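ok posting inputs for the fe (ii) ion job
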Amino acid sequence: MDRQEELAVGRRLFGHIDGRTTDLADALFRNRTINYSCRERAAVERDRLFRALPIFMGLSTRLPKPGDFLTEDVAGMPVLMTRGADGQVRAFANICRHRGAPVATGCGNARAFVCPYHGWTYDSAGKLLGTTDKVGFEGLDHGAHGLVPLPAAEKHGMLYIRAQPGGEPIDIDAVLGAIAPDMAALRLDSHPLYSTDKVTPRINWKFAIDTFLEGYHIPHLHRKTIAPYFVGNCGVFKSGGLNGRLSVPKTTIESQRTMAEDTRDYRRHVVSIYQLFPNALLIWQLDHVEIWRAFPDRDDPSRCEVEMTIYRPAESTRPDSYWEKNRDIAIRTVMEEDFPLGERMQIGFESGATEEVIYGRNEPLLVHFHRSIRNALGVRA
Ligand code: FES
Ligand SMILES: [Fe+2]
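and the output
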């Protein structure tokens, strides 16, 4: 966030710490437990959230050089994302126009993509360069058989795609709304990717996101890990369209209290969690950026794939051991404390014994996330 915003958030946090208060949602919010396990609901979410809306693909530094590419399945859409020789970021359905094999796997750098099945070749702009049997495919219009393009955009060091061909171009500032200036101020394009970890917990994808949206649970569930470092149940919330931000203070924020306001530096003392709708979190931590993305399983609403990535500042001189420690703390707290409990909660939901869960007014980002889901789906419950 920019300097003025940072100081304003700091002021409000000190106000909450002194008054033992926190930002509040306007009302309690009740959500149906079936929304976490129902197949029909999962199908609607796939179409209206994961296919119809722009999806955050991580930072631009995933594709730093011309020729770089990555592949991913986004809620059932095989995606190939490239940076062309012209520096432009593009996305395609990763589906060969001959008989449908994926033309690329994993990530890397390539001048062209050669389909592994029969060797048709495409360039990084998706153009079909050639087929391998000229006679067999005589008369085929190469110009009409390039890879199917998907909307793609890059701004503020962020990558977005839409996992559905056609439609409007993606306007990242419009997608981010009121949190766009925060993203611009983070200088995300100067944070290279450090690590990627993936897990497949037995929880609905929304559970994986919910985990990060309130600090209320920190003193309880994380008593033995991160709780000593945080002021519990205290945060400042901001809405950015469907997205939202929650800034939570670390106990070290007290070091800034006696300083003149314009010399205060909250970067190391406040963790800001951005919920990038629908399925991602960008966490501004101390001196680096942590990104979590959750994708629903293709068949089972009770499962998802969660990816955790750490991006460190390019200018950092810290040794790898320091970043390993950060990675380890993130994995330990989330994958060993939050997700295992989430798996038990998922089982509880599926038992049918309770129909609703309640999000408190002290959990404003959690309320905002589920309200955004309702708005985007066009449903009342
Ligand atoms: S499926 Fe790609 S060349 Fe045949
Ligand atoms: Fe947690």
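notes: The first strand starts at residue 29 and ends at 32. The mean pLDDT is 96.
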